[in-house]
Amino acid sequence: MIKEDKGFYDKRVVYLDYLERGKKVKNGGFYKWEVKGDTCRVMIHVRGLYPTDTIQGEILIVSQGISYPADHITLHLGSGEYLAVWNANSLAGTEVGVDKCDGLQIRLSENRLLKGLWRESQEAPVMKEEPVTHENPIMEEEPVAQEITIVKEEVSAQEMPVMKEEPLVQKKTEKIEELVEQDIPMLKDDPALTDEKGQLKETREAPVVEKPLSLCSDKWQQLKTQFIIITPFQDGREYLSITPRDFTVLPGKYQTLVQNSFLLHGYYNYGHVVLAREKDRLEEKYYLGVPGVYYDREKQAALMFGFEGFEGGNTKSKDGGFGYYMKRVEI
């Protein structure tokens, strides 16, 4: 606990690092920390995350390598603000005083974190008091409707693996083993997708598929009334934010996708997948999209699991760009 010193004053500005799987990706904003006597004023400004990040993040107070839940911050389209005044002797009602606090973290998902520490005694783990749940992010509906254009990656015959009409998730196929051995970190290092021996799981526990939804004659319009509409690229194109629980809207041949390791990998990192429609003069096409960051090895892994294209907005796909790995489906 801090000393009873009414003249105590501390003010600092701390930058927030955005981390995925413990590795810094970019800056994610900053927070102002001001202590006067027995009060602590905290102002958090989150900026520059992904446009699909309309979620709640958990604010954690870090002390001597331990993280204590303090409060929540609401993010909308990758940005958010938080303001609070805490008791300096018991920050946010925890047992931590300002003299023991090493900084703040904001947990976004199981593998995503904002981190701003001014003192590190050791790497601060997140307390696992409750299992992390992944719910649909809450998006504001935007009524603008435009055609969806899916950007397909040009892949030569030598690069494109042969797709078979059978479940795409197989245990340690030769090609997947080869990719994992070439150190695709997003698959090999993810404990959610590997067993105790570090080998790629055949499946993981799939989300429970709920009862089918009743659909009217225009299925797409019906789906738009039942799911959240998002516009991740801010260009008017509409996507439906869904989860594996909602795959009952797809024909039976797509039900095995609830056990697709690549899809689950993206879902558990970002909390959603998307359903998109592309409409031209001849037909309507539908695509299932898995959120992720574009890299050549990630693209190769996506191909192995049946996701043949990448949509990253109107700009050309480049390393580190956010978007969706797409697979054509029917509804």
Task: Provide structural commentary.
- The structure is a single chain.
- The protein has 331 residues and is mainly beta.
- Helix content is 12%, strand content 32%.
- The chain has 5 helices and 14 strands.
- It has helices at 174-181, 185-188, 219-226, 261-270, 296-304; strands spanning 9-20, 23-36, 39-46, 56-63, 66-74, 80-87, 103-109, 112-117, 228-230, 239-242, 273-279, 284-293, 309-311, 322-329.
- It has an 8-stranded antiparallel beta sheet. A 6-stranded antiparallel beta sheet has the order 9-10-11-12-14-13.
- A hairpin with a 2-residue loop joins strand 1 and strand 2 (23-36).
- It is elongated, with a radius of gyration of 22 Å.
- It starts with 8 loop residues before the first strand and ends with a strand.
- The model is unreliable at 122-177 and 179-185 (pLDDT under 50).
